[in-house]
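Apologies for my clumsy wording, but can you show me some protein sequence, whichever is easiest, together with the matching structure tokens, please?
=====
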Amino acid sequence: MDIVGKKKILTKKDVTHVAKLANLKLTSDEVEKFSRQLSEVLSYIEELKKVDTSNTEPTSQTTGLENITRSDERQSQRDLLQGSALSGTEETYNGYFRVPAVLKKT
């Protein structure tokens, strides 16, 4: 990350590194675009850090609404048996769905 004046600018190398961590393949145009966009986001966050919130009470919502929940009870008519769940695919391994690897050794 480069700092120009007080503005933080993400380099192409930063964006490429983050994309690699997220297992994303970006074109050079996307790297350029995201570098600008993410730099703008960081600049906005820096502006927000300047706001004095010392007299502001923490809040998670302001409407007063509460979640309505049901009790956690098993509903056997809604059970999905393993065989039924796997019936729509041929890609299984030891009774589980087989999917492409998410994490790879580098």
Observations:
- Residues 2-49 form a domain with the Histone, subunit A fold (CATH 1.10.20.60).
